[in-house]
């Protein structure tokens, strides 16, 4: 009694259909309309199920979380995570539990995130100052907000992650960004060996394996340089310590042999998790507001009234901005930055929605489809309506299964507090400091790029006008 199977071809199953889809989450959402909220695919030799409703997501991420909380072991993930020494790609088990505990209690805990407040406020102020220069030049210059958001989150992760501030446009920042781009591309690349283990020679013949080895070596040298640099500098207080510094202290103080692979693999998670998703969120919030000028006006009025005659929004102001919160929640719903959760894998045989699911089945949770699930979102699910959150206790933190931009359950995003802190402060200041117009000669579209993170396809080009008190 297996879930309905989408018809495919012998041997390759549904691989050809998925690889031809421009945006996987939209294609799978379309399939769910034909086959229901739970259906099955075969990707080569791998069985996959796809979840597209809030009710089934609650079953998978809450009631049966322990059966659905592993990760499929894919070739690039294995290599780049030092044989799953990280957290994001590690299969469920004692190693994952240990690193997750370290992240929750030390590296990404709410107090640790709070301790980086000054860094966040400083970097957001620098971004605002750069935009102010564009606004005051004659004639005023348009700002590429997609670039500004990516620049902000990359700089933040460098300072918070390993205590370095790279010069804008400098060679070191470029090197870091190039490494990140290669890392992301390889993690979403199609390795034949993942779907047809007997054909692993194909990945060697096409040069993909060599590219993976080469990227691994470069990343490894980069992590090693950062570690060596930290080992040379001593005596930083715990409160001022960056995340890599904390990790090194924890490793050196543990009574087990130092596991440098684990330190490096967790750095990779930090770089991957900490940059794109927050940048994409900032861009989608600004895009959604540009498309709804009356909502833009309302949220700006709320922020400007609350901040009064101060020069900027600081973190103490954020809890006093419920409408901004509603705008952010609604953007996470309609333009969810991670349209499908990081793939899960079943740890055992289980029953879901009356169907039998086999162990080692890959599980795709289609967040994009769930945020439009008509059973959960009864009023105009395709419309941008922040009011639906105003006065509601619904939030993005994993208890409401129609709105799970950070996932839920054991594997919920451990960087959620940091991601939200970055996004809220950046957006509040962009809205407080400037009025915005679409740059001349450009159109405001909502086309998305394919990938693990849903970026806006065309850069968001806006003309800023400095707000005067
Ligand atoms: C707006 C910002 C962010 C969004 C929308 C986001 C979203 C997500 C999602 C959807 C998952 C998958 C959860 C699941 O499988 O159920 C995830 C996992 C993860 N995220 Fe984030 N994330 C954000 C920021 C961050 C930040 C800032 C970090 C680190 C500093 C981070 C680190 C991670 C890690 C390590 C995992 C894997 C957790 C595990 O497998 O145990 N994320 N994130």
From TrEMBL:
Transmembrane listed as a keyword: yes
Keywords: Heme, Iron, Membrane, Metal-binding, Monooxygenase, Oxidoreductase, Signal, Transmembrane, Transmembrane helix
Localization (cell): Membrane
GO cellular component, one term: membrane
Principal cellular location given in the protein's record: membrane
Coiled coil feature spans: none
PROSITE patterns from the UniProt entry: CYTOCHROME_P450
Binding site for heme: 413
Biological process, per Gene Ontology: terpenoid biosynthetic process
Cofactor: heme
MF GO annotations: metal ion binding; oxidoreductase activity, acting on paired donors, with incorporation or reduction of molecular oxygen, reduced flavin or flavoprotein as one donor, and incorporation of one atom of oxygen
Membrane topology note: Single-pass membrane protein
Family classification: Belongs to the cytochrome P450 family.
Protein name: Cytochrome P450 71A1-like
């Amino acid at each position: 009694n297996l879930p309905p199977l989408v018809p495919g071809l012998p041997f390759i199953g549904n691989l050809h259909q998925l690889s031809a889809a421009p945006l996987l989450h939209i294609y799978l959402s379309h399939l769910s309309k034909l086959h229901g909220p739970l259906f099955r695919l075969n990707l080569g030799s791998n069985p996959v199920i796809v979840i597209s409703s809030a009710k089934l997501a609650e079953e998978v991420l809450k009631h049966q979380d322990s059966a659905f909380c592993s990760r499929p072991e894919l070739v690039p993930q294995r290599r780049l995570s030092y044989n799953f020494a990280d957290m994001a790609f590690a299969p469920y088990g004692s190693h994952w539990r240990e690193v997750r505990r370290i992240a929750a209690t030390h590296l990404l805990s709410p107090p640790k995130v709070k301790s980086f407040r000054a860094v966040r406020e400083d970097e957001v102020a620098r971004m605002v100052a750069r935009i102010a220069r564009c606004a005051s030049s004659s004639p005023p210059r348009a700002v590429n907000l997609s670039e500004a958001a990516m620049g902000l989150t990359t700089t933040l992760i460098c300072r918070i992650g390993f205590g370095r501030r790279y010069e804008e446009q400098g060679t070191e920042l470029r090197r870091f960004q190039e490494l990140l781009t290669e890392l992301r591309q390889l993690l979403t690349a199609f390795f034949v060996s993942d779907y047809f283990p007997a054909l692993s020679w194909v990945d060697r013949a096409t040069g993909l394996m060599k590219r993976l080895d080469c990227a691994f070596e470069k990343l490894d040298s980069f992590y090693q340089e950062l570690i060596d640099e930290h080992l040379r500098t001593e005596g930083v207080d715990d409160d001022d310590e960056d995340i890599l510094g904390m990790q090194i202290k924890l490793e050196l103080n543990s009574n087990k042999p130092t596991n440098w692979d684990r330190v490096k693999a967790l750095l990779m998670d930090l770089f991957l998790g900490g940059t794109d998703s927050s940048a994409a969120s900032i861009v989608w919030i600004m895009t959604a507001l540009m498309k709804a000028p009356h909502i833009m006006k309302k949220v700006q009025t709320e922020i400007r009234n609350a901040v009064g005659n101060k020069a900027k929004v600081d973190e103490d102001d954020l809890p006093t901005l419920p409408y901004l919160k509603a705008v952010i929640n609604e953007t996470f719903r309609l333009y969810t930055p991670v349209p499908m959760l990081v793939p899960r894998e079943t740890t055992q045989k289980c029953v879901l929605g009356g169907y039998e699911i086999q162990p080692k089945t890959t599980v795709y949770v289609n967040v994009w489809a769930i945020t439009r699930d008509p059973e959960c979102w009864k009023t105009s699910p395709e419309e941008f309506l922040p009011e639906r959150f105003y006065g509601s206790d619904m939030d993005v933190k994993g208890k409401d299964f129609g709105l799970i931009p950070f996932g839920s359950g054991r594997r919920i995003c451990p960087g959620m507090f940091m991601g939200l802190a970055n996004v809220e402060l950046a957006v509040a200041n962009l809205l407080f400091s400037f009025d915005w117009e679409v740059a001349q000669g450009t159109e405001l579209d909502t086309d998305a790029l394919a990938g693990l993170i849903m970026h806006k396809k065309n850069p968001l080009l806006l003309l800023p006008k400095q707000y005067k008190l």
